[in-house]
Design goal:
The complex is a heterotrimer of chains A (132), B (463) and C (46). By secondary structure, chain A is mostly helical. Chain A folds into two domains: 10-38; 39-124, no CATH class. Helices cover 58% and strands 5% of the residues of chain A. By secondary structure, chain B is an all-alpha fold. In chain B, 69% of the residues lie in helices and 0% in strands. Chain B is built from 15 helices and no strands. In chain B, helix 1 packs parallel to helix 9. Chain B is globular. In chain B, 65% of the residues are buried. By secondary structure, chain C is mainly α. In chain C, 74% of the residues lie in helices and 0% in strands. Chain C has helices spanning 3-32, 35-38. The chains are: A mainly alpha (132), B mainly alpha (463), C mainly alpha (46). Chains in contact: A-B, B-C.
């Protein structure tokens, strides 16, 4: 059997701190897009004002009837109908995103593999011996 | 039974094995079905009605791959940690830590969103009576009550989930039969007049894949029950595949009814699309049925999320990936009670941030990272332990085709998230990168090495 | 006080009772049983 790694015992306070560190990280990443100014609305672009009639909003009679049953008038429906996404593929930001995701998985697999060898060597003995 | 006969006796304690395939189905479908009642329709906003249908089926294919792969690995690696336990046996500790976090984050954030839906629905009811209702106490009550249910035992928790999930599924079927004119009577659906061309072309279809995940997000949570089912190798593949079929049917019906009743621009931003569809039929009975259905679906989902998130957190603590204090089992109810308690304030705080958009994107993306993991996990699983070298409960066909399809579809969905939610995507990746560094430097020294490998398998090939 | 505000207070009240019950029970368990016993669950063991 390989030498068994004995981890230190963590005190209650340290355990508490470690739980909190992770929580703080989560909240930071939830807030980051707000601070950086790019939430989902970044992709939405308004279309120029038109007169608010069902015709101008390109709603046929059936659509119009359903809107009215839902309690809408052309005026209240207009912001919903004219709110459109605006898809733009920027090479730079797309490149950064791809690089981050690929680097993340690459780093993780690399480190995991190193740690995995420690686990396997301790569990099954050093490589070359076949005890289980 | 391994309870302590007298207080403090150094005996062993374990989670209770009491669940059957029905509970597994209730856990899987229960978590997901809320996605049919709300959320999936944001894919209509991103790509139009037809775009949402294409997303529904393409993502359905992604999840079929997930269910196939997951059934094979889970029927072999049956433990409460689910994918976390798979990762630590097959890929390694850092990956396992990340997968555990994906699970806890995806489920806790989904739970927060579910509780918000319950609060908003009650607020809407009060508004119909002309009253102003503060939804916050009901959000807290939902989380507190379900946590209490989870605390008191898994059997009752998932039995309740079965009943309310079944009701929510039946409500969708009832709405379908009364609107589509299948059981006699005239069809109320007006597809020919309501459906339009793709508003953004094919890039919109691609973009809608992101919210297409709502139709199925969380079905893989079934394997978190592995340590509590009576026969994991049989119940989990059965419950998962049964759940997947239920969801494919429910998702297609939901799309069909909603797009036949609601103009797509409204549908794309609706909070409760199925309930709105019921309102448009003009039938009070249908309206009430779908209201209760929406409510039950949200509660069932939050309930399943508490179950899964606490199992994942508990498993990580048991191996000391997380503070070991959370690895305790309740001596009487046999639940991971400390993990359940700890996650209550966290879920409540997510619900109260007012960042619902962000919270939902975080949840979806954590799920997606988990599926990406599954695609290379299965390839490695087959390589380290070829067929025949260990006993597998289930072997999925056509390997490695599902893994390749899964990997490609995941890449497409990352791109879909980039379209419109690029900043959120990067900040969430930053979280997982920082957490990984923190784990390597700070937490890994506390992790026992050989002891975490608990499967009775031979040495992996090549190690 | 109308019906809806009674409902709000009731929801707060029940939430506090449920969470309080769990906290008291968790405390009771910690003082009654040894920590080693509570943490003795192991993966893959019956």
């Amino acid at each position: 059997m390989a030498k068994v790694y004995q981890p230190p015992v963590q005190k209650g306070f340290g355990q508490f701190i470690d739980s909190m560190v992770l929580l703080v990280l989560v909240y930071l990443s939830l807030l980051a897009p707000l601070v950086l100014g790019g939430t989902a609305s970044e992709a939405e672009a308004d279309i120029a004002d038109t007169a608010a009639t069902w015709q101008a909003l390109e709603q046929n009679e059936t659509m119009q009837a359903q809107w009215e049953k839902l309690g809408y008038t052309p005026e209240t429906a207009e912001p919903i109908v004219t709110k459109k996404f605006h898809y733009e593929v920027e090479p730079v930001s797309l490149g950064i995103t791809v690089a981050v995701i690929v680097a993340y998985f690459f780093f993780m697999l690399k480190v995991s593999d190193r740690e995995y060898r420690e686990v396997i060597n301790e569990r099954f003995g050093p490589r070359g011996r076949t005890e289980a | 039974m391994t309870t302590a006969t007298e207080a403090g006796k150094p005996e062993k304690i374990a989670l209770l094995k009491v669940l059957g395939p029905v509970h597994v189905w209730a856990l899987g479908v229960g978590i997901v079905l809320v996605g049919e009642y709300m959320g999936w329709n944001f894919s209509v906003a991103k790509g139009g009605a037809y775009g949402a249908l294409i997303a529904c089926w393409v993502i359905g294919l992604l999840y079929t791959c997930v269910a196939m792969i997951d059934s094979e690995v889970t029927s072999t690696v049956a433990a409460a940690g689910g994918q976390y336990t798979q990762a630590k046996h097959i890929i390694g500790p850092l990956m396992a830590f990340n997968v555990g976090l994906y699970l806890v984050m995806a489920y806790t954030m989904l739970e927060a969103a579910d509780a918000l839906v319950v609060g908003d629905l009650l607020k809407a009811v009060a508004a119909q009576y002309g009253a102003e209702l503060d939804p916050r106490p009901f959000v807290v009550l939902t989380i507190a009550f379900l946590a209490w249910l989870n605390y008191r035992g898994v059997f009752m928790t998932l039995t309740v989930n079965f009943v309310i999930t079944a009701f929510a599924v039946i409500a969708i079927l009832v709405l379908f039969f009364s609107t589509a004119g299948v059981g006699g009577g005239e069809s109320l659906l007006r597809h020919s007049e309501l459906l339009t061309d793709l508003p953004y072309g094919w890039i919109g279809v691609l973009a809608s894949l992101q919210f297409g995940m709502w139709y199925y997000l969380g079905i893989e949570g079934t394997c978190q029950a592995a340590e509590e089912v009576r026969s994991a190798g049989r119940s989990i593949p059965l419950g998962t595949m049964g759940g997947m079929i239920t969801l494919l049917v429910a998702a297609s019906l939901t799309w069909y009814m909603c797009t036949g009743l609601i103009p797509w621009e409204y549908l794309g931003q609706a909070t409760t699309p199925l309930y709105d569809a019921a309102r448009l039929t003009g039938s009070v009975q249908l309206e009430v049925t779908l209201f209760i259905g929406t409510m039950f679906a949200a509660i069932a989902s939050a309930n399943g999320c508490i179950n899964d998130a606490s199992r994942a957190w508990f498993s990580m603590a048991r191996d000391r990936y997380m503070p070991q204090w959370f690895g305790a089992v309740h001596p009487r109810y046999r639940t991971p009670y400390r993990s359940i308690l700890f996650l209550i304030p966290i879920a409540v705080s997510f619900a109260f941030t007012g960042l619902l958009d962000q919270v939902i994107t975080f949840s979806i993306l954590s799920g997606l990272l988990g599926y990406t993991f599954m695609s290379f996990n299965i390839v490695r699983f087959r390589r380290l332990w070829p067929l025949g070298s260990i006993e597998r409960g289930y072997v999925h066909p056509y390997h490695p085709l599902p893994a390749i399809v899964l990997g490609l579809l995941c890449s497409a969905t990352y791109f879909a998230t980039y379209l419109g939610y690029g900043t959120s995507l990067l900040s969430i990746m930053a979280f997982y990168i920082l957490a990984s560094l923190w784990f390597v430097v700070r937490r890994y020294p506390y992790v026992k090495r050989g002891e975490q490998f608990t499967m009775p398998w031979p040495r992996p090939k090549g190690y | 006080m109308d019906f809806w505000s009674v409902l709000e207070y009731a929801a707060w009240g029940i939430s506090v009772v449920l969470v309080g019950w769990m906290l008291v029970d968790a405390r009771f368990v910690s003082t009654t049983y040894g920590e080693d016993f509570l943490l003795s669950s192991r993966e893959g063991e019956e």
